[in-house]
Description:
Elements: H1 3-21, H2 26-36, H3 44-62, H4 67-72, H5 74-91, H6 95-101, H7 105-123, H8 135-145, H9 155-165, H10 170-191, H11 193-196, H12 204-231, H13 236-253
Helix pairs in contact: 1-2, 1-3, 1-12, 2-7, 3-10, 3-12, 5-8, 5-10, 7-9, 7-13, 8-9, 9-10, 10-12
Amino acid sequence: xxxxxxxxxxxxxxxxxxxxxxxxxxxxxxxxxxxxxxxxxxxxxxxxxxxxxxxxxxxxxxxxxxxxxxxxxxxxxxxxxxxxxxxxxxxxxxxxxxxxxxxxxxxxxxxxxxxxxxxxxxxxxxxxxxxxxxxxxxxxxxxxxxxxxxxxxxxxxxxxxxxxxxxxxxxxxxxxxxxxxxxxxxxxxxxxxxxxxxxxxxxxxxxxxxxxxxxxxxxxxxxxxxxxxxxxxxxxxxxxxxxxxxxxxxxxxx
Length: 254
């Protein structure tokens, strides 16, 4: 076993886990990290697939006590489908353009700055009193979620903020954001199964290690964000400041 490669995979799994659900963009952080970890360039798409699979497993564990109630809530499931469908039809025509952006750190920097401004706006929004998701919320969240395919724009950050801007309570917006992550991550993982079939067997233990680390830290970040924002949505400003700092450093140094 290469301990250097194992260490790099653990680092990427940790970053994926912490940033997938915290509103600071996992894709942006992975692009920046892999820029400095050239050894990970071996089958990077497959590694990303395993890391996201780890986050998906964490989501299932996170919602485990609520699955029965969620499945019985037909209106909520319909809204999840609606928001996901809107995102999919907007993103699909630009797939190749989106993939090209993952090789350009400058785009990550600009997108992180944008994420910071969105989070800052949401942190000070005061008219969100609704605790039930309706079709209008779903349309707004689905539209803005389409922006999150760009590295540096946080999917959780943009969807939580969109929920808040569409007058959802922060707790409701967080839950809806996390539910939306399930079909999106599952779809992304399923779309890369053909690549996984061509996996280098010598790298499989490293990919499984990355997935395990990603799962553990994804679950922790889910719990942490819910607890933090249940205190006050104003806490989003801390994530905005972080995005601004990393965004500016990226633009200066890369």
